[in-house]
Amino acid sequence: MNIQKLFFKILVSLTYLVRVWGLFLPISIAIIFMKEEGWRYGFTFIQSNFNVALFISFAFGFLISLYHTLSFEEAEGAPDQNYLKSHQEVHVKSDYTIDELENWLDNHKKFKNIESNETQILALKKVHFLKADKVEISMKSGIFTIKSSPHFRWWFIDFARNYKTVKSIATEIKKKV
Q1: DSSP 3-state assignment of 167?
Q2: For residue 133, how far is the Cα from the chain centroid?
Q3: How far is CA 23 from the centre of its chain?
Q4: What value does the CA radius of gyration of the chain take, rounded to a whole number of Å?
Q5: Residue 72: exposed, middle, or buried by beta-carbon count in 10 A (0-12, 13-18, 19+)?
Q6: How many CB atoms lie within 10 A of CB 69?
Q7: What is the structure's pLDDT at 97?
Q8: For residue 167, how many other CB atoms are within 10 A of its CB?
Q9: Mind listing the pLDDT tens digit for each residue in 60-99?
Q10: 174 CB neighbour count, 10 Å cutoff
Q11: CATH 3.40.50: does it fit domain 85-174?
């Protein structure tokens, strides 16, 4: 890996850490300040103050962002513009037809509510404990555009789930070149 790509990944990972930290900070502040006194059960060194809230939110943010980054590294092959993003978009050229792709999606238990027309397929991909991810596949002059995103537009934590969805569909489409 070259040095520019390494710095790019470090920078993106750090910005992701700050976003997750910012998400957990109000929650940890609320929990810490709801307590009326220091923590009980032998933890007298932990006091209810702002520093504890900062530490707890940073610790959760660090663990979640580290796991998210490692999930993307494990998935391999993500384009740089899609690195650590929950909203994925990939373009693939193939001779596949929309009907063939719809049949392939129908045969997988992961996808549901599949709707299609001549140039587009809309589907939902099942996700454990969350609402289903949105999958959109469109074709224009032999080039497929595959998009996958979480159900909620503002959700940014997906642990490379949407990239893996896009990658599996793109791999299937590439089989018929």
Answers
A1: helix
A2: 10
A3: 15
A4: 21
A5: buried
A6: 20
A7: 84
A8: 20
A9: 888 888 888 888 788 777 777 777 777 888 888 888 888 8
A10: 13
A11: no
